[in-house]
Amino acid sequence: MLIVQKYGGSSVATLELMEAIANRITKTKETGAKLVVVLSAQGDTTNKLMGLANSANPTGSKRERDMLLSIGEQQSIALMALILQRMGHGAKSLTGRQAGIFTTSRHGDARIKQIKTERIAKELDEGNIVLVAGFQGESEFGDITTLGRGGSDTTAVALAAALNADKCEIYTDVAGVYSADPRIVADAVKLPEISYNEMVELSSMGAKVLEKRSVGLAKKYGVPLWVLSSHGDEEGTVIKEECSVEGIFVSGVVANKNIARISVSGIKDQPGVWFKIFNTMNQSDIAIDFVYQTKHAGGTKDISFIVDINRLDDAKKAIEANAHKITHAAITHDTDMAKVSAVSTGMATNPGVPSLMFEALFDAGINIDSVSTSEIRVSVLINKEHADRAAQVIHKKFQDEKYIRG
Amino acid sequence: MLIVQKYGGSSVATLELMEAIANRITKTKETGAKLVVVLSAQGDTTNKLMGLANSANPTGSKRERDMLLSIGEQQSIALMALILQRMGHGAKSLTGRQAGIFTTSRHGDARIKQIKTERIAKELDEGNIVLVAGFQGESEFGDITTLGRGGSDTTAVALAAALNADKCEIYTDVAGVYSADPRIVADAVKLPEISYNEMVELSSMGAKVLEKRSVGLAKKYGVPLWVLSSHGDEEGTVIKEECSVEGIFVSGVVANKNIARISVSGIKDQPGVWFKIFNTMNQSDIAIDFVYQTKHAGGTKDISFIVDINRLDDAKKAIEANAHKITHAAITHDTDMAKVSAVSTGMATNPGVPSLMFEALFDAGINIDSVSTSEIRVSVLINKEHADRAAQVIHKKFQDEKYIRG
Asked: What φ, ψ does residue A308 adopt, rounded to 5°?
C-alpha cells in the first residue's frame, strides 16, 4: 500500500498542530503503508512572504518571488521530519527538486512536466516517511518554480500519479465535499463520493475544497482522491471516475461572489472580434464565463463576460493592451453580481435540475440576469446580495425533491 | 574587474538596511565591475530557525536541520534581488546548489569540494548582479548542506577563488581588522594590511572579525581579501600573502574568554595515551591547545588541555566514549581561564614580543598559568577576570614600544 497525503497550511500552522498531524501520519505509517506526505507552508507564511516581496519590489521578477515563496514549504517539511524523527520514525524531507518535480519555467504558475521518482522510491524503500514540499518544482534552467493556486494539492496528486499510489488523501479543515457550503446552507450534507467531472465543475464554479487543476490531474491519471478532515476521524469524500449511485443526484450547489462582469461596448461588428477577445484572455490565462453580446442598431455591439474578481485588473489591462485589435468605445465593469451553480451528472438526460433551480429562485423572488449551462452544470447570474439566499432555497428545493444524496 | 562581496546578517537584518546595502552594491556595479554578492540570513533568522529545530527535536538529524537553516539565506538573496531590480539593475539570486557549490555530506559542517561556475558565469555575462546564498551547498546525494561557523565568509572566499576574482570584500560591522578589540582596548588601531598567516592566528586565537577557515582558504588560493565596514566609506584592511612593512610589528592582541580547560587525571603512564586523547579530539573535530601533563609519583599522570567552551560537552563525551582506551580516574574541567595572545610575524627572529608581553603582565600583577607559542604567536593562560585588563596592558606596552603599526 502506497499512500500520498497532503496537509494544508492551517493544519501545520504551529509546532503543536504539526505534532497532531505527526500522530496522524504515524498511525498511517504503522499500518505498514509506504507514505509520502506533501505539506504546505505554515499558516499565513506564504502571505507574509508575498508581503515582504511586495515591500521589496511590487513588480519584481516572478523568478525571484518564487525563490522567496518556496522557503515556506521547505520550513514545513524540515520541521515535520524532525518531529517524526523524535517520535522514532525514519523521515526525510525533500524539496520539489529533490522529489524530482520538474516544471515549465512559467514562474508563479508553473506546470508539472515530469516527475522523476527515483529519490522518493529510494527513501521509501529504506523505510522512511517522505515529506515533500508542496507548491514547488524546478525549471529546465535549474530555477525554483511555484505552481500557483492550489499548488500543494497538485503536487500531491501528481506524485500519487507518478508513484502509482493506491490513494491520494487531501486533508483539509472540512470533513469532505459537501452538497453546499455548510456555513451558508445549514442542511448541506457531506457526499460519500463524487465523480471527477462533477468535482471539476464544482471547483470551477467556486467550491473551495479542491482546486480544479488537481482534480483534473487526478481524473487524467485515475488517481483515487480522498478529501478528509485533518482533525477528526470521520469518513471523507472519495472522488473517482464513476459513482455507484444511480439516478438524478445533485452533487453540489455553489454560490460564487468573487466574480466581476466586464463589458466591452461599442465594438465594430466585424469578423474576428470574438476571437480576439477570447484569445487575449486566453493568453493572459484568464478564465471567462457567461459570455453574451448585445447588438446595437448602428452596427456596433457590446460583449460581456464574467471573470474571477482577482483577475479583473489583469483582464482590463489585457484588453486595453490589445485595444488596437479590438476597436471599441469603452470598457466597463460591474462587481455586484454572483454566480450560483448546481452540478449533477444526471442533468444531461433529465431537465429536472435546471427547472427546479429556476422554480426555487422564482418562489424566492430572485431575478435571474442570465443562464449558462454545461453538460453537467447549470449556473445563473444574479445580484450578489441574493447569493446566499439563492444557494439556500435551491439546495432546499433539491433536498425536498430528494435530488441530494444522504 | 570581478569582485565578490559578502554582507553579514546584521547588514541585511531589515528591508531598510538591505536598501542601504543595495545602494552600495549598485555603486560598485556602476564602476563597470562584474559583481557576485554573498549574503547571510537576515539578523537573527538563523538562531530563530535553530530554536524552531530544537523545539521540534533537539536531537534530530543534521540533514533536516540543514534543510531548515538554509532557508534564511535564500530569503536574503531573493529579497536583495527584488530590491536591486526595483533600482533598475539586472539581478539574479542563486541558492548554493544553483551557484554550483558542491560539498561533503557532513551536514552542519560541510566542506566545499568543488564549485561549478557555469551558471554564475552565464548570469555575469548577461550583465546580472549575482546574489549567492552563503553558508550552503549541495552534497553528492543531492541534499542541502550547511558549512558551519563563518560559512558565508567561506562561501565568498571559495567563490572568489573559483571565479578568479580580483578581490573578495567581506563587509562587517567594524571597519577592518584591529590591533585589539576596540570595545576592550580603546587605543586599538585599524591595520591597513595583515598577512594571511597572521590573520589565521588571530582568528584561531579568538578574533571574531573573520573565521579562520575562510582566511585559510584565501591563503591557499591567494585571494586578496578585504575587511570593510558595511556602513561607512573608510578604507578597510587587506589580507594578503606578504605585507610591505618591515620590522617587528604586532598585528594583534586577542583575549579569548570562551575557553575551558579539561583535565584527564590518573592516567596510567603507558605508550599511546597521548595519541589516543588527541585522536579522540581530532575525530570529533575539536581543536585543542595548551596541552600539558603532570606526572605523579605512583606512575600515573594528568593531561590537561584547552578547548572552545562551546565544545566542552562534546569533548567530555568523546573522552568518556573512549574511556576504555584511555584508562583514567577522572575528568574535570575549569571555565575560569582566559587565553590572551599576541600575533606577530616578526616574532620568529626576535624574542622582544613575548618578553614585552610577560613584562606587561608582571607590571600589572597578573599571574600567568601557562604559556604556548607558535612561530608567529605567543599565548598565555590567565584567570578569566583579568582577561580584558591583560589585553589592555599588553597592547599599551606594544604601543609604547612602537610595536603596533599606525
From this structure: -60, 140
